[in-house]
Amino acid sequence: MKKGYVKIKLVRSSIGRPRKHRDVLKGMGLTKLHKVVDLKDTPETRGMIKKVFHLVEVIE
What we know:
The protein is α+β, with helices and mostly antiparallel strands. It has one domain: CATH 3.30.1390.20. The protein is 32% helix and 25% strand.
């Protein structure tokens, strides 16, 4: 993994979740279950992870 990046995996479905949570997942590029994305490790990304921490898994 590249330095300064964080891997995020969607482990729980967004079905039945509030619109804000679904929008955050879509903004991070997590559209399907078990999908993994690499995002820059910025305060904005950390805030998004914090918003949906119960739906994602962070792989550092």
